[in-house]
Amino acid sequence: MLLLAGFAAALPASASAIQISEFSTSSGLGAESPLGPLTAGADGNVWFIGLHSIGKITPAGVISEFGEAQGLNPGSAPQDLALGANGNVWFTDNGTTKAIGEITPSGSISEISAGVSQTGAPSNIVEGGDGQIWFVNAASPEAIGHVTTGGTVEESPLQPQSQVEDITLGPDGNLWFTDKGIQSIGMITKEGGVITEFKIEGLPSAMPEEITAGADGNLWFSDVGKSAIGRINPTSHTIEEFTQNIQPGGQPTTLTPGPDGNIWFIDQLSSQRAVGRVTPSGTITEFTQGLGVGLPLDIVSAADGNLWVFQGEPSSIPGSTSLARVTTAGAITEFTSGLSPMGGQDGGALIEGPDKSLWFTETGTPKAIGKLDLQLPSPTTASSTTTTASTATTTASPGPAAPRRTLLSLIRATFGNQQVALTTPLPTACTSAANTLKVTFSSSAISGSRATKLRFVRAGLFLDRGLARRRRVTTTSQGKKKTVTKTVYAANEILSRSPAVARLAVTGLKSGAHTLKVKIFFRQTVKLHGRAKTTTIAKTLTAPFRVC
Description:
Layout: E1 2-5, E2 19-23, E3 38-40, E4 46-49, E5 54-57, E6 63-66, E7 78-83, E8 89-94, E9 98-103, E10 109-112, E11 122-127, E12 133-137, E13 143-147, E14 153-157, E15 164-169, E16 175-179, E17 184-188, E18 195-199, E19 208-213, E20 219-223, E21 228-232, E22 239-242, E23 252-257, E24 263-267, E25 274-278, E26 284-287, E27 295-301, E28 307-312, E29 322-326, E30 332-335, E31 350-352, E32 358-362, E33 368-373, E34 385-387, E35 394-396, E36 408-415, E37 418-425, E38 436-445, E39 455-463, E40 467-477, E41 480-490, E42 493-495, E43 500-505, E44 512-528, E45 531-547
Antiparallel strand pairs: 1-36, 2-33, 3-4, 4-5, 5-6, 7-8, 8-9, 9-10, 11-12, 12-13, 13-14, 15-16, 16-17, 17-18, 19-20, 20-21, 21-22, 23-24, 24-25, 25-26, 27-28, 28-29, 29-30, 31-32, 32-33, 34-35, 36-37, 37-38, 38-43, 39-42, 39-44, 40-41, 44-45
């Protein structure tokens, strides 16, 4: 599982000004771009979808779009984007040929159609933490599909009435999704693609929409049918829903982990827009004071320690297009200066870019990609921040300045009875060549597990292919011996204990995207014909990272 856990103490609202810029056709944006979805690339840019193109925009606002000339299928219709573990951007294509596509930072595109149901509609897409890419295909019946690390596509069909709304990575390493068609929360294992769905009980009928992993280790989802926020435990599979303090008839939709460890969501009720907060114990508070009439479209947690909401539609009403800052105490301030009055429209998206600015899509008139520069203080004036994957908490040194956020990527995987965790910097951040890449690793036995008993031996950490070594090797061919020099690759560091923390020097690596490969060795003892036999088993995890 890949979990993005970024937490920070909030800066005072007056401590940082903001500046909004918009980039449209005059900046090179195609007339039919963007269509909505955005993703932060490992190359430091923000990537977006056009009508028949995949585009990127640099922090300075320089736009490039890539289409058939770069490998996009004729008649393409890209739908959604996700950053892959290999540093490329992956997308679903619901065009003439249904496919899953991949685009490199330089704009070279390749698409895979074999294995993708051509009667379906590939939509949501997410990276699985182990290099696999997962997606939803609205076929008949619907299916959850994935692209293996070998580049093949496999699909697992759902029930005939299924209607998947959202899919995300769970803290247990499985993929979790909302199924509005059969009013349930679904889980699919990355090993074997086994699907299990858990029914949401009670009346009125549930309509689960968005789902995300919380800092408390649970999955949280919005239920617009029951005006509720729900929680499912990934171990016990117990579902609880919370409705108290959600306004009557509330329409909670998009949600996100907040900088305070709570889950935040938007309530699209037309008579009173709201932003909501739910604590790990299920206590809900909704905030409306200061929020305008525009439809809340998306919500994100930003590097200034606040939540931000993008509002739009109906764009014909003055003030409906806005960006709202929400403090963790619930104070709301709206900003409209620099926004196109007619730009907001349902489908607009909001994300935090690699440059810590907020980027959004205006799909109204005119279409544009917007940038909200938080003008954060220089990192040299901020205290250090420590984020732990297990508790997702932040510890700050004393001082007048609030800490900047450190984003971490957490990969969890299960091998036999072993739970493995790997923490590295998020691939949208970058490690200076003058510094080191900090890696936290652990492998521990799962209490009560009936899976194959494995014992951790060691782990080798490889930066890309590892350390090149020249070695003389003697081989025999047709009875003749021949000695040749071969290049072999050794681990940059060996971990012989767990848990362990490694700091890997990245000196000499070129700036840009790289891959950390962790090869883990386990011992397994089995009885064969009454005799105990011990074998060594190797498993590999990969994580992308960037060098400045």
